[in-house]
């Protein structure tokens, strides 16, 4: 969509290209175009690439269009949690979940149900039950009604979430554990199988991405369930990771679960950093994402990779880990981050927007989009994208139209001469890895109502 508003490209940049002799195309060099989106590239490898998404943001066009373009699996971020679906006992509310499921179905996405039994986002009435029989019956009813409501629409259910403690591998001290004991997890899986026999049933947890006491405990549980015929089909590794810390044994860990006869899903991938982001952190993050995707591809039963959100703008990280963020594949402005390109490449894809011209190694391209408008002005956004090579900096030049004046600009450093505004980076968004992009935004006062796109050129550095 953004490309529909493409700005005038610099004639100067075209003149810089030296004339080249044109060789006739050799048949041997003609290749099929590599897949250009995460979901296409994943599909070509027999995988699914998903994201968590929130019903509340679907009305934002950039949010919905990025979701629909890149992902073929959707996990409702909060809409299916117990406190939302059964706020008071046996009184169910599936409104928001139904809406987001409808969106996913219309797009042909697989849906991950998240989650039936979890100690968080649990309504007070359930957390207050102290009799085993009463809690078992409440849990069975919750699963029967919720998984029953969505039966036939859900590819995978996170039946039980986060039931183990960090460090020791002991069970987490939740109301379920205290009141029902160890057996509650298998009771939940049996109830889920009955309610939706077609869905794959997963156990999901964090800090079980590599081999450690916690993942060993989950491994022992899954092994036991398989041996005793308790219905379990998959294990979800949440993969809420920190920068530079992809476990080196992640692939081996996934393989040992796969060898038990279950699928392995990466269910909530994000890789957080201290904010603000800079070029070097983003490059490390790209490498981290590449490692995770490659580890999954190396395990045939690792069939799903799901990131925990589309854009850094709405990521849960800054709320829960103050001072950290920038954990996802798209920046606040839906620009593709280096981690996006690294993930796509690891899947065997190539960004079609990446010119990839080795004869022009320092090149950047840029595009303009109008993000808001009103009678006397508008907001614009410019995205600068590196080609096949890293650039250390960039310059964008906007030539404003008649009556237009920039009254504010963010994520860029402007200098104005007449109607020409030259914009340089603010520091953290100067350095762009191959294929990465940076965006800046601005407000234009246009009392005469002139909404025409300013002329735009860009160059590097
Ligand atoms: C998070 C959501 O992203 C937030 O919006 C919400 O406020 C809290 O929960 N592990 C999980 C997810 O299994 O359900 C959590 O989602 C993130 C950690």
Automatic annotation (TrEMBL):
An example molecular function term from Gene Ontology annotations: endo-1,4-beta-xylanase activity
Keywords: Carbohydrate metabolism, Glycosidase, Hydrolase, Polysaccharide degradation, Signal, Xylan degradation
Domain CBM2: 357-461
Catalytic activity: Endohydrolysis of (1->4)-beta-D-xylosidic linkages in xylans
Claim: Hydrolase is one of the keywords in the record: yes
Segment forming the signal sequence: 1-28
Protein family according to the UniProt entry: Belongs to the glycosyl hydrolase 10 (cellulase F) family.
Record's protein name: Beta-xylanase
């Amino acid at each position: 969509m953004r490309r529909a508003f493409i700005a005038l490209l610099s004639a100067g940049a075209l003149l810089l290209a030296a004339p080249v002799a044109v060789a006739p195309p050799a048949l041997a060099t003609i290749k099929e175009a590599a897949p250009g989106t995460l979901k296409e590239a994943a599909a070509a490898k027999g995988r699914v690439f998903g994201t968590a998404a929130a019903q509340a943001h679907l009305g934002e066009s950039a949010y919905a269009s990025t979701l629909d373009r890149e992902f073929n699996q959707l996990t409702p971020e909060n809409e299916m949690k117990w406190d939302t679906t059964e706020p008071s006992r046996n009184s169910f509310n599936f409104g928001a979940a139904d809406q987001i499921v409808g969106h996913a179905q219309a797009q042909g996405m697989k849906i991950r149900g998240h989650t039936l039994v979890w100690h968080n986002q649990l309504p007070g009435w359930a957390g207050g039950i102290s009799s085993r029989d009463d809690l078992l019956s409440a849990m069975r009813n919750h699963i029967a009604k919720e998984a029953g409501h969505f039966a036939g629409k859900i590819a995978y259910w996170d039946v039980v979430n986060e039931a183990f403690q960090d460090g020791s591998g002991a069970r987490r001290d939740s109301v379920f554990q205290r009141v029902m004991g160890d057996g509650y997890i298998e009771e939940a899986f049996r109830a889920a199988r009955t309610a939706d026999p077609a869905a794959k049933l997963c156990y999901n947890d964090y800090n079980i991405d590599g081999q450690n006491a916690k993942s060993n405990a989950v491994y022992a549980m899954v092994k036991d369930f398989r041996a005793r015929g308790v219905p379990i089909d998959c294990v979800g590794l949440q993969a809420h990771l920190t920068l530079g810390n992809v476990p080196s044994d992640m692939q081996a860990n996934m393989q040992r679960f796969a060898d038990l006869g279950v699928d392995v899903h990466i269910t909530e991938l994000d890789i957080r950093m201290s904010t603000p982001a800079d070029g070097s952190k983003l490059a490390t993050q790209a490498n981290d994402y590449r490692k995770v995707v490659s580890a999954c591809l190396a395990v045939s039963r690792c069939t799903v990779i799901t990131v925990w959100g589309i854009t850094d703008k709405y990521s849960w990280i800054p709320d829960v880990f103050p001072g950290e963020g920038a954990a996802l594949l798209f920046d606040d402005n839906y620009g593709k981050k280096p981690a996006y390109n690294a993930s796509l490449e690891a899947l065997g894809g190539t960004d079609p927007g990446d010119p990839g011209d080795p004869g022009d190694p320092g090149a950047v391209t840029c595009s303009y989009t109008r993000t808001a408008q009103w009678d006397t002005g508008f907001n614009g956004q410019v995205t600068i994208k590196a080609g096949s090579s890293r650039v250390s900096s960039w310059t964008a030049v906007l030539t404003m139209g008649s009556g237009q004046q920039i009254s504010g600009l963010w994520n860029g450093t402007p200098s104005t001469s007449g109607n020409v505004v030259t914009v340089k980076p603010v520091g953290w968004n100067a350095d762009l890895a191959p294929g990465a992009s940076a965006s800046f935004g601005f407000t234009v006062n246009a009392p005469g109502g002139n909404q025409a796109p300013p002329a735009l050129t860009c160059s590097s550095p």
